[in-house]
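agent> Task received from the user: take the single chain below, predict its 3D structure, and emit structure tokens. No templates, no multimer pairing.
agent> Plan: (1) validate residues, (2) run structure prediction, (3) serialize to tokens, (4) report one or two observations.
agent> Step 1 OK, no nonstandard residues flagged.
tool_call: predict_structure(input=
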Amino acid sequence: MSRILIVDDEESILKSLRRLLSLTPCTVGDETYKLVVDICSSPVEALEKARHTAYDLVLSDFRMPVMDGVQFLKALREIQPDTARLILSGYADLNGLIGAINEAGISRFISKPWNDYELVSTLGQVLALRELTLENQRLADQARLAMGTISAEEIERKRLEASEPGITQVNWGPDGSVLLDESVLEHDNSSDKWMR
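)
tool_result: status=success, residues=196
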């Protein structure tokens, strides 16, 4: 099962894409991908979701208020570097497209209005390529482990972070304690304790 996120400031686009992907099988060769589709109308909301939910693929509109698709996908890349990233846009701005490729590392550009068959086929191809890339990374990590250039703990950390974004990030207090939410806790210097 593949989890994808669609980000567009137009609700009608989000509903249309969700309906299309729930009705149309995403097939590449002999492989059929069952899709779980999340939608967001705000890139800020989508980034917050990405901090807690692992996505295989993210499809973003190019022109949105607050931040454009390139800025959003660039920020997403910091949170989930292995997620496939695509841009959906009605504007074929060459500089924007170059920025999307160079800065956000997009896999594909899909134009609006889209052809349903081509869109679903593209998503299947990108998901298949992502699977192959991740398998190559796993095999490379096994080879590095055998050579002693990476530890088993580092491989496990990478696996955990890919399945549960943010799980390996720990906020440490000055006394070595783990801070669960820095905004809620304050340090009382007189008693050397952390308080709410």
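agent> Step 4: summary for the user.
The chain has two domains: 2-136, 167-196.
agent> Done.
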